[in-house]
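Two proteins follow. First one:
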Amino acid sequence: MNFLYFDPGLGAMIVQAVVAAAAGILLFSKNAWYKVKAFFGLLKEEDDTYDSIDIEDNDAETDDTDEHKK
């Protein structure tokens, strides 16, 4: 009977392959599920909280021109 020899390097490689496969399956399924939900229109619209930080260009330009006119 032939016995296989597993050294620590091979064991670490097997563990790494299992973890990488699990992460790949998780990310692929998450992306695929998102596309399915988007296709059927089941996505919820999330509010973008960062829009309120933007400064409108028109307001900044009118303030500058009003100061120069004085």
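Second one, unrelated to the first:
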Amino acid sequence: MPTPPLAGSTTGPAALRPLIDTVLTALHDGAHRRDGPLPAGGPDAVTPRMRTATHPVIPDHGTGPHDALRTLVSALAEGAADPADPLCAAHLHTPPLALAAAADLAACALNPSMDSWDQAPAASALEADITAALATEIYPHQPSPDALVTTGGTEANQLALLLARERNGPVQTICAANAHHSITRAAWLLGLPAPLVIPAPTGVMDLAALDEALTELHRPLLVTATAGTTDTGQIDPLADIADLCTTHGAELHIDAAYGGPLLFSPTHRGKVHGLDRAHSVTLDLHKLGWQPASAGILATPDRTHLDALHHRASYLSADDDTEAGLPDLLGRSLRTTRRPDALKIAVTLKALGRTGLADLIDHTVATAHHLADLIAKTPTLDLYDRPTISTVLFRPTDADDNTVATIRRTLLIRGHAVLGRAHTNNRLWLKATLLNPHTTPDDLNTLLDLVNHLAHDLTEGSTPR
């Protein structure tokens, strides 16, 4: 077998072109065979089919690039949960924009490694500009805000706690019961005290409980608020929380992985008022930003807040190179080798602009409200609440939790729809997290019809259709 061609240099594009055509055909064929949001049959059907395609995983003699791509990509597409299908609406699992995926292909082909300037000359400059611009969106009145690119909200939250620890020592974190699980995990990883979890009886942080905790606990304290919870999409009262932190001398981190992009929408940015008062903010553009994973951000109001991450490895950032003007990139992440994820973000922002991104956000939020309207008008369904962002909880009227769980699993196993689940108000709810800007009213009606038919069959004791 001849030496396989490489993706880069001037010859790379010619080598990639026929391979990409094979990949695109395989994606199409696999999606056509799946014919829905999820492969039917559950793990018992999906796993053997995928194993058949991969076997043998490491053959003695290769089958060649086109056969390997055609076989494995089509099998993966056939067995995928497809977030681009309007009935795939369980999680904060976004359908990526085609232009962002195309930009990510360029990043793969060029393969800059963001740990030293000599591996990423242009990419390091691009990342610096993009992170500064995103930080300015969050902190518009600060002279020198900055941000880091992360793998997502979990890494960004961990970095936020790490930076707070480096500023203040072993901080005591306070979060509400609605906080993301990564807050507790980050405290554990960093050797910090376990977070004090205060109530969120209405789905958001209880201000009276926060005031009491801030009054009684020893300092230093770090409050972590949430702008867009994973269960309901609700947003804590950020400005009121910031007021209490100021009064009590506590620091504030806001996990806005879900809700942060609302800043780009003039219609909805008021929902995250107070974001700029945090000592750090988590943002995920692979959620309400339609980027391929990963595209996380941790922003701070001043670039000097990131100085604690400074790290030196002489083979990557020698002192004399830095003094001569070569940027030192190791302080931009806890990771060493990392992808140029800023490229797809930059392409999306340049292509769509503020108005284009705002249109996507506004349309998606409006679709969630339309779904809530349909549920409210359906006598056989109960609506949990009006959506804050794009998460809608609902359940069949008078169904018990076991029936709700069975409906969800049945839809999954049949490949008809992908809905999430959330336990709140002492009940189990079906969760639709709408992130597909192409979802139509007909799609929403189809989703509710599927749930209603299953609920009827299960309640009547007949075999679900």
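SUMMARY FIELD: The first strand starts at residue 146 and ends at 150. The first helix runs from residue 12 to 34.
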